[in-house]
């Protein structure tokens, strides 16, 4: 619907109606423009606009007309959701001013499809001259600006050409990214992601090998955590520590942990729940509740203290399991560690049920003779050659069937012992823990 309005300046305008939808319960009468005739102003529709018909809107300039339009009527105008297909547009070159990103010529071969049996395409990642395609149940690699020609012996030879996306080649293994593209992270030639349907965390390298890094001592954990109740899985690369950080989040809680390539294992649980993770330069950032936070900062104040995540300061805890000579029942007599002072031991227990007298307090520098004498008999760490030692005082009840000699008896017996180190981060200082050991003797009974 269109109408031509003649104004006093002899300019022409097109008054157009965008749709036939009328607001049945308008909050106020809609009068978009004061110059619109009363017949249109009384209409409650809010989908009108005025288009200038004269070139540059100048006084009495040449009037333009839309003229004749050629179009094709689609026999089936319904859209199609091609979840397994990639389509690309024309080229974009900022130097020459060429922008053909809105051109999709149906006369050219501009689509590539993967096997729909493997589910939707969840993520695309361009690496050098290859395009990695992550489906729910499969990972493929497509050649960019080149194609593969196979010899009679089956050897693939690449050749350059005008083809934008070449042949699609699947990686070995029935793995995918499920529906969690946010778990993807990349560093160098390694790509990390999760496959919730198979309950595993994976690593893909340029050699085409897919490795289950969740099997490095954490198979049962990820099998349980990557369940149907998981609502969000977020992954990122921590450039500061060179670790892959993975946060598995549910409606009732979260588990955030780190994977270290240098030891090929999952090293730590982390006390924060990020909504997004990224590295910039050598810094690591996470976002939470619409705010961005910088980790490992040296700014020591209330809001940016050590072990402070999203404004909440938490104590640091390290649980150590000592199990030298696994088949031998041992008596663990001492706790020794290398690192900074102020570490305490909150719990000590053995596989037999023995419990150590806790807590073992942190080291304090004696400044007087009286303080030095009291430190000798105190149940706290002592320092010698920058290494800290403490005796484990047995506090097991007699019901365990052991001979208990009271507080003077040191050591707990078992195949292995578990010790929990704690650090009060209200100290607002950087404290490190390098190594933990224990002096043991073989049990005689």
Summarize the structure.
By secondary structure, the protein is mainly β. The chain has 3 helices and 34 strands. The radius of gyration is 34 Å and the shape is elongated.
Topology readout:
Layout: E1 2-6, E2 12-17, H1 38-41, E3 48-52, E4 85-87, E5 92-93, E6 98-99, E7 111-113, E8 121-127, E9 130-135, E10 139-150, E11 156-170, E12 185-187, E13 190-195, E14 200-204, E15 210-212, H2 219-225, E16 230-238, E17 243-250, E18 254-260, E19 265-270, E20 276-280, E21 283-288, E22 291-294, E23 308-309, E24 312-313, E25 316-322, E26 330-332, E27 334-339, E28 344-350, H3 369-377, E29 382-384, E30 387-391, E31 412-414, E32 417-423, E33 433-437, E34 440-442
Antiparallel strand pairs: 1-2, 2-3, 4-7, 5-6, 8-9, 9-10, 10-11, 12-13, 13-14, 14-15, 16-17, 17-18, 18-19, 20-21, 21-22, 23-24, 25-32, 26-31, 26-34, 27-30, 27-33, 28-32, 29-30
Low-confidence blocks of residues: 20-24, 28-41, 403-407
Instruction: Name the overall outline.
Output: elongated
Give the spatial strand order of the biggest sheet. Answer: 8-9-10-11
Distance between the termini: 100 Å
- Give the tally of β-strands: 34
